[in-house]
Design goal:
This protein has 12 helices and 9 strands. By secondary structure, the protein is of the alpha/beta class.
Length: 313
């Protein structure tokens, strides 16, 4: 098939837009969407120090590459990368190599932190106690360590590689749970005190297009799936939405657009309260707090709750 915008061979058919695009116009279309969202949601401002959560996977690698490509001439913005080594044998060491290679190629400062150094335990050990909770351990501890590291590095923004599929799945899951608080936190320009503002420049890019963009730009990508991914509750939401997207192209875009439309109404509800963890001092939402004894102002963050579970002692 020929490209919709020129006579060259198309490398992708966007079913949701009914467009065939060649390599050049596919890249331009993807980059246009990313730039549009950055402007629309005011993800970046002059003087920002942007920390990119770089796992070495396709999404975070494409995100780092794009931000570097778009803003490398801007002297009023600084980009750095943070990689969290959770301690997943036979998996994280490979993606870590890819992350190091990419940051060296782009000339971007790269900082690596690990569960072992920060929490004195790794994910393999945690999963050995309860494999069904591996993704819970990983998600909570990784978010905590990313925020802490970004803050220590003086970052004003934390960019994460959540794509359209991730965003639609998160919105869908929280609709089903009726969790308005978590929905509010998904807002692309929402901010909670004590937490580095998270931005998601890839939120309008389908997962398959992120992967294709990485391939056509020669990025070092890892196709291996995390060994604990099969335990993630998100997998069911992924299957449901993927099946529906096949029958009704554009469904994932509709979910995200619908959420964006009602965000202003959600913001009229009480915001999540933020406290400081009694053990580690990191920010914690009211939902994650556990009152101890008679000390009403004492609280423990979710990370410390998990790390202090009886089975881990």
């Amino acid at each position: 098939m020929k490209c919709l915008k020129c006579n060259r061979r198309a490398i992708i058919y966007q079913k949701y837009s009914n467009a065939h695009l060649c390599r050049q116009h596919f890249g331009e279309d993807l980059e246009r969407k990313v730039k549009r969202d950055i402007r629309k949601y005011k993800m970046l401002e002059r003087g920002d120090r942007v920390a990119v959560a770089l796992s070495g996977g396709k999404d975070s690698s494409v995100l780092l590459y794009l931000l570097h490509k778009i803003f490398q001439e801007r002297r009023d913005l600084e980009i750095l990368a943070i990689t969290i080594d959770e301690g997943i044998g036979g998996y994280r060491d490979k993606t870590l190599e890819l992350a190091v290679h990419l940051t060296k190629k782009l000339g971007i400062p790269h900082f690596i932190e690990s569960f072992q150094n920060s929490f004195n335990i790794n994910l393999d050990h945690l999963a050995s106690k309860d494999k069904d909770k591996a993704c819970t351990y990983c998600g909570v501890l990784r978010r905590t360590l990313l925020n802490k590291t970004a803050r220590q590095l003086g970052a004003t923004r934390l960019a994460v590689g959540h794509n359209l599929d991730d965003e639609a799945q998160s919105i869908f899951m929280n609709y089903l749970r009726g969790d308005v608080g978590r929905l509010l936190r998904l807002s692309p320009n929402g901010k909670l005190p004590g937490l580095i503002l998270r931005i998601k420049p890839l939120r309008s890019i389908p997962e398959k297009e992120v992967a294709l963009y990485g391939i056509v730009n020669g990025l070092p990508l890892n196709s291996q799936e995390c060994p604990y991914a099969s335990a993630a509750l998100r997998n069911e939401a992924r299957r449901i939405l993927n099946d529906y997207e096949v029958r009704h192209p554009g469904t994932k875009y509709s979910i995200v657009r619908g959420f964006d439309t009602i965000t202003s109404a959600i913001k009229t509800l009480p915001r999540t309260s933020i406290s400081r963890c009694r053990i580690c001092g990191e920010p914690t939402s009211y939902k994650d707090m556990l009152t101890l004894g008679s000390c009403e102002d004492s609280s423990i963050c979710k990370a410390c709750l998990l790390l202090n579970e009886p089975q881990l002692s």
